[in-house]
């Protein structure tokens, strides 16, 4: 089990548990996996190989159940997939305050979720045990006895971040599964997790501000949380310079943002919009909005219709246009911390 300085133990053989649970729930019909087509784009001069994935089946994704309960005149409770998950969707408890569950609608195989056992708001600043639990899962994947693996964790917070569930949760994607299909895609071997590239390569650049810290081996829960709060406060100041030092590191978040963590990197980007519309190659027709969540920090984007898929592949700079709108300009002074935990 992975505990060390984190104070939280991830289950033994976590990759095997996730894989077995995913396959069982998929066969039982309790989750849906949406296969995708994939292309690699290089928008502008970013130095980043960006995954573009297309899943036409997502256009017909079922809607969540309607709100339930509540007497006449009382507000009904929205459906919460994390409060009482099906046994088949539950991977394991992660004491003391979290549970690991499967994502019901998966684009990436073995996509799973770290959720709080009690309902806590997605819009609040993360607590120390949230960060420690997520990193314990990352460490467990890397230290797996059968095969060391990388895990990408991301958190969406606020209306412009791509967040869709109010119950606090961090999402986790096995990087090996994120590479599915890349072996047959042109330049597929060039793709790497963008958060890692931004924190380690001088030629990696994107048009929106991303604040990063490198995570040292053996980082404690307190160090990890302090780094996250520091990045969050710096991001708030980018959007609200007038606040200077008066940024609270707890409670309701002041901004929308995405957080990403890998074994070696923590990255955070403040968000001002969820996405942007794109036009056809001729520029005459709007073919759809492209919305981005925390997977943007992995260097991935998802589209749901063929017109968007074609337009972005024909002109990768359209993706650059979307990226330039989602956050603060990367030319903003002081956007990268680049420190080590």
Automatic annotation (TrEMBL):
<dbReference type="InterPro" id="IPR036265">
    <property type="entry name" value="HIT-like_sf"/>
</dbReference>
<dbReference type="Pfam" id="PF19327">
    <property type="entry name" value="Ap4A_phos_N"/>
</dbReference>
<feature type="domain" description="Ap4A phosphorylase 1/2 N-terminal">
    <location>
        <begin position="11"/>
        <end position="178"/>
    </location>
</feature>
<feature type="region of interest" description="Disordered">
    <location>
        <begin position="57"/>
        <end position="84"/>
    </location>
</feature>
<dbReference type="Pfam" id="PF09830">
    <property type="entry name" value="ATP_transf"/>
</dbReference>
<dbReference type="InterPro" id="IPR043171">
    <property type="entry name" value="Ap4A_phos1/2-like"/>
</dbReference>
<protein>
    <submittedName>
        <fullName>Uncharacterized protein</fullName>
    </submittedName>
</protein>
<dbReference type="InterPro" id="IPR019200">
    <property type="entry name" value="ATP_adenylylTrfase_C"/>
</dbReference>
<dbReference type="InterPro" id="IPR009163">
    <property type="entry name" value="Ap4A_phos1/2"/>
</dbReference>
<dbReference type="InterPro" id="IPR045759">
    <property type="entry name" value="Ap4A_phos1/2_N"/>
</dbReference>
<feature type="domain" description="ATP adenylyltransferase C-terminal">
    <location>
        <begin position="205"/>
        <end position="328"/>
    </location>
</feature>
């Amino acid at each position: 089990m992975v505990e060390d300085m984190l104070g939280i133990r991830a289950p033994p053989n976590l990759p095997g548990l996730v894989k077995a649970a995913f396959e069982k729930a998929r066969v039982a019909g309790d989750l849906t996996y949406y296969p995708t087509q994939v292309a690699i784009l290089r928008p502008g001069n970013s130095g980043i190989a960006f995954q573009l994935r297309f899943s036409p089946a997502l256009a017909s994704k079922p809607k969540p159940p309607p709100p339930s309960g509540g007497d006449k005149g009382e507000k009904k409770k929205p459906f919460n997939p994390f409060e009482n998950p099906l046994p088949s969707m539950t991977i394991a408890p992660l004491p003391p305050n979290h549970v690991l569950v499967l994502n019901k609608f998966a684009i990436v195989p073995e996509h799973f979720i770290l959720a709080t056992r009690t309902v806590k708001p997605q819009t609040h600043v993360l607590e120390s045990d949230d960060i420690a639990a997520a990193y314990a899962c990352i460490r467990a994947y890397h230290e797996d006895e059968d095969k060391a693996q990388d895990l990408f964790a991301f958190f969406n917070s606020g209306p412009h971040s791509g967040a869709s569930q109010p119950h606090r949760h961090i999402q986790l994607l096995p990087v090996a599964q994120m590479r599915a299909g890349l072996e047959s895609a042109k330049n597929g071997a060039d793709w790497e997790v963008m958060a890692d590239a931004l924190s380690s390569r001088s030629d990696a650049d994107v048009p929106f501000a991303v604040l990063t810290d490198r995570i040292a081996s053996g980082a404690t829960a307190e160090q990890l949380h302090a780094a996250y709060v520091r990045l969050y406060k710096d991001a708030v100041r980018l959007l609200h310079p007038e606040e200077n030092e008066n940024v609270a590191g707890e409670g309701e978040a002041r901004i929308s943002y995405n957080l990403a963590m890998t074994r070696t990197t923590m990255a955070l980007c403040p968000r001002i919009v969820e996405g942007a519309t794109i036009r056809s190659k001729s520029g005459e027709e709007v073919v759809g909005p492209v919305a981005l969540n925390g997977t943007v920090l992995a260097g991935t984007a998802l589209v749901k219709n063929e017109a968007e898929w074609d337009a972005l592949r024909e002109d990768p700079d359209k993706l650059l246009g979307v990226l330039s709108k989602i956050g603060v300009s990367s030319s903003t002074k002081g956007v990268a911390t680049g420190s080590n935990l």
